[in-house]
Design goal:
Blueprint: H1 5-15, H2 19-41, H3 44-60, H4 71-92, H5 115-129, H6 133-144, H7 149-156, H8 160-177, H9 179-182
Helix pairs in contact: 1-2, 2-3, 2-4, 3-4, 6-8, 7-8
Length: 186
């Protein structure tokens, strides 16, 4: 298959990065690229994304295009590779409906059922933040990360007794600072 004189001029201009040539190539081959992308992806929205990425890659790599060659095979190859990359990306990003999520999943954030509980949670956070850094770290590792005293000692590189004494001091201070939360209104 030979390239006509007009196509040869277009391919030369395209290879030189001429914007008008890039637009002409898009007008001429966008339908072909879309059909390739849609065949691979099976989704119109993703196929449209693939078309954009295909022509962006073609434009960026215009200098590597050999003037006088056919555009169609080159663009189809780029489109197929782009579509496969998008398909792989989408498969890695497996999504489930939020309604199907396990409500006990730790990744889900649940709001407190009342303003009072939200205020109490804020009070606990403030009390923890007011602890000395070494005690605060022990409390966070123990209660937020679920680490044992031995795991905390290993992680912080301190003796087990040090972790236990820091934990005791921190919990004693927290109990004092949060005592108002335990008071029952009369």
């Amino acid at each position: 298959m030979t390239v006509g004189l007009a196509d040869a001029a277009l391919s030369t201009a395209f290879a030189e990065g001429d914007e008008a040539a890039v637009r002409a190539v898009y007008r001429q081959f966008a339908g072909l690229v879309m059909s390739v992308a849609q065949r691979v992806l099976g989704d119109k929205g993703l196929a449209e994304e693939a078309v954009q990425q295909t022509f962006l890659q073609a434009w960026r790599n215009a200098s590597t295009f050999e003037a006088g060659r056919e555009f169609a095979p080159w663009l189809v190859t780029i489109a197929r590779r782009v579509a496969i990359d998008i398909q792989r990306r989408e498969n890695r990003r497996a999504a489930t409906a939020l309604d199907d999520a396990d409500p006990t999943d730790a990744a889900l954030v649940t709001l407190p059922p009342s303003a009072e509980q939200a205020w109490e949670a804020g009070q606990v956070r403030l009390a923890i933040d007011s602890l000395p850094p070494d005690e605060r770290e022990v409390v966070r590792l123990q209660h937020l990360s679920g680490c044992t005293h031995q795991q905390i000692a290993d992680q912080l590189g301190v003796a087990l007794g040090t972790v236990k004494s820091r934990s005791f001091r921190a919990h004693k201070a927290l109990a004092s600072r949060l005592a108002h939360l335990r008071e029952v209104p009369t």
